């Protein structure tokens, strides 16, 4: 989280510096170029949507700095309307950039502890599925909260596969079997070399199907599209890197990315609802 | 106050936080007023933020009646109306009753 805030601050500073360069290059007294106005507005939006809240509540920067910067961003938002003075733009930009690293970056870098130690997936992943719906998901979220990132991913993958399998049973396993036959018979396209065919008749038999094959057939059933299938394979790779010893890193960013994808593609995907 | 609201409680949570921030402003500055961006910041932190409907939620007839002017993104702070102050007292009473 600390690193994430620093990255956002870096982007914010770069955007402000870029805007300053754009504004300085304008030969007239007033700014009417749409690209500059849009950039100014997007910087003000970046402040309110991405930066102010974590700096105010997680990092705990001084309130007067937060309020002063908020006021400057309000001014920038107003300036992004047509025909405002170049000098007004530069005044606001320079005031925000003045001592930027000392004001914003240094206090974060010097803080000994992480800004947020709890990896709260329900907060970090927009519209996260209700953990009460799945014991696997509930345990995954609890693992993440306690910093057990690999365990969270392994259990998160269980929750996705569990959801897919339940949907397939509900739809009728004959459709799953038919879809596997159809994919097998393809003579062109990315699955032309996939030569498996299933004849499962129970959940227990379905559970014996490899996860990678399950993804192929589910795509064949058009429950997910090609890009979603590719992304699920990436999630499965994260799952394998979490479950098997190796040097590939599994950090907070991987956990959040994994759950954001699994949540959107499977857990909250209407195609898998009862 | 409860955190990480379910979707249907987000709109109400946003208004309650706005009213509570007006109370904070009254304590620190003697004015019951609400800065929309301070509310946005708090709602993001507390899990009561719906980016798409944040401003719209302030503008429903019921909620708009709590503020003297129209709440706008990056807009000025707005004072509470007497109806807003009454609603704030209801929020405080409910919080006291729930022991939050």
- The tally of strands of chain B reads 2
CATH class type of chain B = Mainly Alpha
Q: How many separate domains make up the residues of chain B?
A: 1
Q: How would you state the average pLDDT of chain A, rounded?
A: 91
Gap from first CA to last CA of chain A: 36 Å
Write down how many β-strands of chain A occur, each being a DSSP E stretch of 2 or more residues. Answer: 2
**Averaged pLDDT of chain B:** 91
As a percent range, the share of strand residues of chain A is under 5%
How far apart, in Å, are the first and last alpha carbons of chain B? 5 Å
Major sheet details of chain A: 2 strands, antiparallel
> Which topology of chain B does CATH recognise?
Arc Repressor Mutant, subunit A
Please tell me the CATH architecture of chain B by its name.
Answer: Orthogonal Bundle
- Major sheet description of chain B: 2 strands, antiparallel
> Regions of chain A with pLDDT < 50 over 5+ consecutive residues?
none
Key traits:
heterodimer, A: mainly alpha, 2 domains, 2 strands, 1% strand, elongated, B: mainly alpha, Arc Repressor Mutant, subunit A, two-stranded antiparallel sheet, 5 helices, 60% helix, 4% strand
